[in-house]
Design a protein that fits this description.
Helix 4 (98-131) packs antiparallel against helix 6, helix 4 packs antiparallel against helix 7 (156-167) and helix 7 packs antiparallel against helix 9. The protein has a 3-stranded mixed β-sheet. The chain starts with a helix and ends with a helix. Helix content is 77%, strand content 3%. The chain has 12 helices and 3 strands; from the N terminus they run H-E-H-H-E-H-H-H-H-E-H-H-H-H-H. The protein is globular and about 65 Å long. 36% of the residues are buried. It has 314 residues and is mostly helical. The longest helix has 34 residues, at 98-131.
């Protein structure tokens, strides 16, 4: 009996099973088509933004340098999640090895943390441009922009790798089914049969450092930006200045809102459906909205698209 239990424990350590959308078997192919369309849309739209911000001389500014990196980050972020979802929907199997699960969780946390920091850098850029316009060129020079982007990409890696290692060092001796479509931190932690108190503390520290602190810095930046905008005498001037940062503000509210609810709300108070819905929101639907928000609400991007279309049609 003891030997059988050991074998069961050993086998459960080899892989997890992502339940995904198995509770909606009649919608599997519809969801496959929907997520495939969303993935292609995200790839195409963000690639276009990357191309035009690289090629158009009028977009060679810090603001669009950050947007270029943000678009590349969005492509990386969805590539970690959606192709796996598509494969599971197609095969109707959710088996994922322990290593693949750890890798997916690690990349999700790295790209998610990087997005928080990059959004903060973008808010700082808007603050300097609007509140310190005379010093903008000297403050937001190319070296500073490169340092901010590098810091956003690199600073999350050591912490996330350590956090992932600590999670997968736990004992998983019970059910190996994850009632989710990705290997996200909270869901994997629920399956551990050893004490997870330190891991939960680590999770809250990471949430504070990479979500709450950047969000507070963004709030401070926009508080000063709005205060500066209100001082402008011209209503047209206020509208023009606010339009340059409204897209970024919308993205911040959508991303931070859903991420904060997911990682800060007590896990016992979330239903399975709510967890999946929130995860879908910030891993799939927000990355779909981001390029639309940045293009439709940005006159410079729209003009660059028209110029690019004119060149291609010649």
């Amino acid at each position: 009996m003891e030997k059988k239990l050991e074998q069961k424990n050993s086998s459960s350590m080899l892989e997890f099973v992502l339940m995904g959308f198995s509770d909606s078997p009649h919608f599997q192919w519809f969801l496959f088509g929907l997520f495939l369309l969303i993935y292609v849309t995200i790839l195409v739209c963000n690639s276009i933004i990357i191309i035009i911000t690289k090629l158009d001389p009028n977009l060679q500014t810090p603001m669009y340098f950050f947007l270029n990196n943000f678009s590349f980050l969005e492509i990386c972020y969805v590539t970690v999640t959606i192709p796996r979802m598509l494969m599971d929907l197609c095969t109707k199997k959710g088996n994922i090895s322990l290593f693949a699960c750890a890798a997916q969780m690690c990349f999700i946390l790295i790209f998610g943390g990087t997005e928080c920091l990059l959004l903060t850098a973008m808010a700082y850029d808007r603050y300097v441009a609007i509140c310190l316009p005379l010093n903008y060129i000297s403050v937001m020079n190319r070296k500073v922009c490169l340092q901010l982007v590098a810091a956003a990409w690199i600073s999350t890696i050591p912490f996330v790798i350590g956090e992932t290692y600590h999670v997968f060092s736990l004992s998983f001796c019970g059910p190996n089914r994850i009632n989710h479509f990705i290997c996200d931190f909270p869901q994997v932690l629920k399956l551990a049969c050893s004490d997870t108190f330190l891991n939960e503390i680590e999770d809250y520290v990471a949430t504070v450092v990479f979500i709450m602190v950047p969000f507070l810095l963004i709030i401070v930046s926009y508080g000063k930006i709005i205060s500066n905008i209100l001082k402008l005498s011209s209503a047209k001037g206020r509208s023009k200045v606010f339009s340059t940062c409204s897209s970024h503000l919308i993205v911040v509210i959508l991303f931070y809102g859903s991420a904060s609810i997911t990682y800060l709300q007590p896990k016992t108070s979330q239903s399975k459906g709510t967890e999946k819905l929130l995860s879908l929101f910030y891993t799939v639907f927000i990355p779909t909205l981001n390029p639309i928000i940045y293009t439709m609400r940005n006159k410079d991007i729209m003009m660059a698209l028209k110029r690019l279309r004119t060149k291609l049609l010649k």
